TrEMBL record:
<keyword id="KW-0349">Heme</keyword>
<dbReference type="InterPro" id="IPR001128">
    <property type="entry name" value="Cyt_P450"/>
</dbReference>
<dbReference type="Pfam" id="PF00067">
    <property type="entry name" value="p450"/>
</dbReference>
<keyword id="KW-0408">Iron</keyword>
<dbReference type="InterPro" id="IPR002401">
    <property type="entry name" value="Cyt_P450_E_grp-I"/>
</dbReference>
<feature type="compositionally biased region" description="Basic residues">
    <location>
        <begin position="402"/>
        <end position="411"/>
    </location>
</feature>
<dbReference type="GO" id="GO:0004601">
    <property type="term" value="F:peroxidase activity"/>
</dbReference>
<protein>
    <submittedName>
        <fullName>Fatty-acid peroxygenase</fullName>
        <ecNumber>1.11.2.4</ecNumber>
    </submittedName>
</protein>
<keyword id="KW-0560">Oxidoreductase</keyword>
<comment type="similarity">
    <text>Belongs to the cytochrome P450 family.</text>
</comment>
<feature type="region of interest" description="Disordered">
    <location>
        <begin position="390"/>
        <end position="411"/>
    </location>
</feature>
<dbReference type="InterPro" id="IPR036396">
    <property type="entry name" value="Cyt_P450_sf"/>
</dbReference>
<keyword id="KW-0503">Monooxygenase</keyword>
<keyword id="KW-0479">Metal-binding</keyword>
<keyword id="KW-0575">Peroxidase</keyword>
Length: 411
């Protein structure tokens, strides 16, 4: 390590994180498990690797007050499960897990598969298609009815694009940030209306659907959740489902770059399709870091942290940790044809999904991604020449700039 590094680490890193994006935490850690630094003007510790993941998901840390306002208010929404702790968290999380059981995930996968089949058939008469845009519209058209939200195709498209605007703009500078914030306001109003109308008996979503379960959702004391909070959680199911379009765009890029895997998946190799989906989630960046706060003063893997001090998990660095993932920047689905270091596979968080904050949507994500990969691999297309397939490591979340443009009809 160079002599200047400890001094550089001690400087406030907020601007560097915003400017550098995904490489920030791995560069700061330089392979170490726990490093002290400063963020948002205060001391912080950045953790990574399997030991870092274990410590981050330990009960000595809490989530209340951990997220900066753009994340809390624009992405997750006020009062969301992401910022709850202890009994309040367990209770809310159980509601969400009720909606996301294996049978429900299979139903969503089947609906998305049928939409891809129709969509790909419709490409025949078109000069070109952009995979990212197709995926946003398609996922919205599958996920909204599945969630019990009965609206026509135009509204599905409009809501899908609003949901995508929130995901794409929440962590940026204006103007995308303003577009995201405005979309958030509109979505909150809409979803709160859906919850209120369900409670009033004007809407009758299917039992077990997200709208039915969350509109009837109660807190630990048996009180109905405020309509706005139930609406926030409804959006916390449909918004990240639309966010899978970011991974679908990367999957299309990987299919362009890996014709061997494309052929294998097109031939019906189910294990290859699953492994490909896993590797897309591991290899391509989405969530850069996660944040928590110390419940009381404590030692975090050798670093002293004050009560309320910030502890950050380097998600991107952990999914690219050479100890767990040899040649980590290489896209290689074959890693997932054998056993992997599960604890280092944290694109959607780590620890226990029921008791901790791990994402309850991993089944939905993998299923939506796998369905898309299978349909895209089997469809006849060539990439449009000359497009910009690069992506920025500073933009969060990022994706191929062109959205991946394909010319249908030629294999
Ligand atoms: C692009 C795909 C997705 C990514 C990258 C992603 C990533 C994450 C991450 C990193 C967390 C935080 C884990 C933590 O705080 O420890 C999280 C939490 C969460 N995700 Fe996802 N997710 C995705 C898709 C989904 C889907 C499809 C759903 C629902 C259908 C979903 C619902 C949630 C919820 C409700 C939480 C909060 C859990 C809690 O605080 O206990 N996510 N996600």
């Amino acid at each position: 390590m160079d002599d200047q590094r400890p001094r550089r680490r001690r400087r406030d890193q907020t601007l560097r994180l915003l400017r550098q994006g995904y490489p920030w935490a791995p560069e700061l850690r330089d392979g170490e498990t726990a490093v002290p630094t400063r963020l948002l003007g205060r001391p912080a510790v950045v953790l990574g690797g399997v030991a870092g993941v274990r410590r981050f998901y330990d009960d000595r840390l809490r989530r209340r007050g951990a997220f900066p306002p753009p994340v809390k208010l624009v992405l997750f929404g006020p009062g969301a499960v992401h910022g709850l702790d202890d009994a309040a968290h367990h209770h809310r999380k159980a509601l969400l897990l009720d909606v996301l059981g294996a049978e429900a995930v299979d139903r969503l996968g089947a609906a998305a598969d049928a939409r891809w089949a129709e969509r790909v058939a419709g490409w025949a008469g078109r000069d070109e298609v952009t995979v990212f845009d197709e995926a946003v519209d398609l996922i919205a058209s599958a996920v909204l009815p599945w969630a019990g939200i009965d609206v026509g195709p135009d509204e599905q498209r409009r809501r899908g694009r609003q949901l995508a605007a929130v995901v794409g703009g929440f962590a940026t500078a204006p103007p995308p940030w303003a577009v995201a914030a405005l979309a958030r306001v509109r979505l909150d109003r809409w979803a709160t209306g859906l919850v209120r109308r369900t409670r009033a008996g004007e809407l009758t979503p299917p039992p077990g659907s997200a709208l039915a379960v969350l509109a009837g959702g109660r807190d630990g004391a048996g009180r109905l959740l405020p309509a706005r909070v139930a609406a926030v959680e409804l959006l916390n199911v449909v918004r990240p489902s639309v966010a899978v379009a970011w991974f679908v765009a990367f999957a299309a890029l990987a299919l362009v770059e890996q014709p061997g895997w494309r052929a294998r998946i097109a031939d019906g190799d189910a294990a290859a399709a699953r492994a490909f989906a896993h590797e897309v989630r591991r290899c391509y960046p989405f969530v850069p870091v996660l944040a928590a706060r110390a419940r009381r003063a404590q030692d975090v893997l050798g670093q002293p942290v004050r009560r309320g001090g910030l502890v950050v998990l380097d998600v991107h660095g952990t999914t690219h940790d050479p100890g767990a993932w040899p040649d980590p920047d290489r896209f290689d689905p074959a890693r997932f044809l054998g056993p992997v270091e599960e604890e280092a596979l944290v694109p959607q968080g780590g620890g226990d999904v029921r008791t901790g904050h791990r994402c309850p949507g991993e089944g939905v994500t993998l299923t939506l991604l796998e369905v898309a990969v299978r349909r895209l691999a089997a469809a006849p297309w060539t990439p449009v020449p000359g497009q910009d397939l690069g992506w920025s490591t500073a933009r969060m979340p990022t994706r191929p700039r062109s959205g991946v443009r394909l010319r249908p009809g030629r294999a």
